[in-house]
Amino acid sequence: MTDITSQPPSAKPKASKAEFRxxxxxxxxxxxxxxxxxxxxxxxxxxxxxxxxxxARAWSQARTVTPMIFSA
Length: 72
Prior knowledge:
- The protein is mainly alpha-helical and 72 residues long.
- It has helices spanning 17-45, 54-71.
- It has one domain (17-71).
């Protein structure tokens, strides 16, 4: 009989920080061109300055998407 009271089996293994950073970098690199295009075309669609620069926008998108991948 197996004793699982001291170390219960985990449902999913935890991902390492290095893996998270790799996924974050890939998603950031993929989001950066689209954020740059949105930043450049912003004056054509709306008046005024965009509230975020292209790097901040891509960083924000990567911060949103990467945890979704790891929670699935």
